[in-house]
Fold each of these.
Amino acid sequence: MDFELSEEIKAIQEMARKFTQNEITPRVAEDEENHTFQRDIINKMGELGFFGCPIPEEYGGSNLGFLAHTVVTEEISRVSGSLRAAFNMQTMGTAREVFQFGTDEQKKKYIPKLVSAEHLGCIGITEANAGSDVSSMKTRAVKKGNKYILTGSKNWITYAQVADVGVIYAYTDPTKKYKGMSGFIVDMHSRGVSTGPTATKMGWNACPTGELFFDDVEVPEENLLGGEEGRGFECVMSGLNNTRLTAAAGAVGVSHGLIDEAKKYANEREQFGRPIGKFQMVQEELARMIVETEAARLMVYKCAVQKDAGNHGNVLETVMAKYYSCDVASRVADGALRILGAYGYSSEYPVERLFREAKLYQILEGSANIQKMIIATDALGYRKANR
Ligand SMILES: Cc1cc2nc3c(=O)[nH]c(=O)nc-3n(C[C@H](O)[C@H](O)[C@H](O)COP(=O)(O)OP(=O)(O)OC[C@H]3O[C@@H](n4cnc5c(N)ncnc54)[C@H](O)[C@@H]3O)c2cc1C
C-alpha cells in the first residue's frame, strides 16, 4: 500500500490548485451571487485536461486515472461546488458512461467533445416522481423505423438549460421493469427538447439546474447507448458508482475549503486578549474537522485506486466513501460556522456559501439514507453490493 501520490498526479494537483487560486477564487463569490454560469472557466478547465483523467488518450483524455480525477475534483471543490459539478457533467456521468457502455461510433463521436468542454453534457435520470426510486421513471422511448420517439420529462437536471448533449434514461419496455430501461445519447438542440425555468436553490447558484421536457423527440437508433435495449438500469447503477466517487471527492474538497477558512479566522480573530485559536475548545473543534476530513479522503482515495486497478464493481467501498465524506462535509461546515461565530453567518466570508454547498452532498447521487441502506443490506446478507 502506497500513500504517496505519483509525480504525475502531484503535478496535475498543483496545476488545479494554481488554477483555482488565479481563475476561480477572485470571482467565485460574485458569480454565485449573480447566478453567473462560468462557461469560460469550464472551457479553460477542458483545455487544461481536467475532465480527461479517467479517459484514454484515443478519446481525448490523459488516461491519468480515477485517482487523478479525484484529486483535481477535490481542488476545485475547495472553492466552488458549482464548478465541481462539471466533473460529473463532462466526465463521469457522460464521457465515462459512453466509454463504458457506448458503441465504438458513439465513443468517437461524443467523448472528445465532452472532455474538451466543446460540448456541455447532462445526465437525465431524476423525474418529478422518480428520485431515489429510479425505476419509477415514466419517460418513454418508442421505436419507430430507425428512430426512437422520446416522450416525458426530467427534473433537477444539472446543466438542463445549457447542455449540448445528454445521457437520458427512459423505458423502452415498461412491462419488463428494470430490464426494460434503456439509455440514449440525446442531442439537446433537437426539436421537441425544452427546459423549464432555472431552479432556485440554497447554493451552487453558478450552476444551472432545471426541468427537461421531451415532446416527441426523434432520437436516431444509433444513439441508443451501447446499441442494445434493456441495459439502462445497469448503466444508471454503474454510472452512479462513478459519479458517487466524484461527489465524495467534492465533499472532501469543500471540507478542506472550510478548514482553510476556519484556520485563517482562528488565527486572526482575537477575544479575551488572544487569538481564538489559542482556546482549547476551538482547537478541539478544528482537530475533529481535520481528522474526519482526512479519514474521508483516505476512503475516497481507496475507491479511486481500486478503480484504477480495474475494480469497477466496488459499489460497497464507493457507497461508504460517499456516505461518510458527505456527512463529514456537513459536520465540518457546522464546525467552521461555530469557529467563525457571527462572521460565519455573514455572506462577507466564504464559510456561509461553503456551508450551503456542503449540504447538497447528502442529497446528490443517492441520498445518505440510500447509501446506508446499501451498506446495511450488504452487511446483513440481503443483497451483495459489490459486483
Ligand atoms: C442541485 C441538484 C442537482 C441535481 N442534478 C441531477 C442531475 O444532473 N441529474 C439527475 O438525474 N438528478 C439530479 N439531481 C437529483 C438527485 O439525484 C435527487 O435529488 C436524489 O436522487 C434524491 O432524490 P429526491 O430528491 O427525489 O429524494 P426522495 O427520493 O424523494 O427522498 C426524500 C427523502 O426520503 C429518503 N428516502 C427515500 N427512499 C428511501 C428508502 N428506501 N429508505 C430510506 N429513506 C428513503 C431519502 O433519503 C430522502 O431523505 C439533482 C438534485 C439537486 C438537488
Amino acid sequence: MFIDSHCHLNFSAFDEDLDAVVHRAVEAGVDRIIVASVDEESSRKAVELAERTPQIYAAVGIHPQDAQKYAEESIRIFQDWARHPKVVAIGEIGLDYYRDYNPKELQVRVFKRFVRLAKETGLPIIVHNRGADSDVMAVLSDPRFKSVTGVFHCFSSDLSYARNVLQRGYLISFTGIVTFKNSESAAILRELPEEKLMLETDAPLLAPEPHRGKRNEPAFIKFVAEKFAEVKQISLDEIAKITTQNALRLFPKLRNAFD
Ligand SMILES: [Zn+2]
C-alpha cells in the first residue's frame, strides 16, 4: 500500500475525470492521498474532496506564489478547516525565490503566519522551498516554532541542506523527478535514511518516467517507489511499508481518520 503524500487533485486538470483517477490510484495500491492546496479556493476544494472521497485527505494553506491573495481576515477560515478531521496538514506553504512572483518580504510574512497556524493547531506543515534555503531555515529555526514539524516536499536542495532538514526533525519527500535521467535527486536520496522519507507525485505536475511530460496522477506513485527501491537497494514492499509508516507518523490525523 502506498500513500501519495502530496498532489493536487483540487486543480482543474482533474475536473473531468477525478473519480477515474482515484479509482486507478486504488487499483495501483494507493489507499491514501493527501491533496495539498495553494490558496483559499483550492483549500476549500481539497476539503470538499476529502469529505466525499474516503481515500482523500486535505492540506490547507497558501503557496508562496499566491502570497498576494492572503488577507488576515481569511485566517479564520483556515483555522476552521484545520479542525476538520480530514485536514491533516498546513500546506503547501514556504518560499519560492526561483520564480519571484511575489516580493520576498510578503512571502516570508505569509509563510510565518501559516507556520504559526500550524503551531496553534498542532498540525504538521508541508514546505515548498525553491531557491530559498537559508530564509526557509531561518523561519523554521525561530524558537517559537520549535514544536512545529513537517516535510520538505519535492526536495531540490543539496545534500548538506537535506541533512540540516533532517536534523531539525523534518522529513523529506521526492517526486517523479528522481526517475529523470541526470536528476541529482537520486544521489541525495541514496544518502538519506529511509525512515525520514516519503513518496509523492505532485500530480498533475512532474509525471515520472515513463510518463514524463504528460499529466501526472497518484497511480504513478509506483514509478517513484520503484526508483526508491532501486536506489536504496531494498524491495518495493519494504519501501511501501516504510514510507507509509513515515507518513502515518508525521500526519497523525491520516491514521485516526482511517481507523
Ligand atoms: Zn505541490
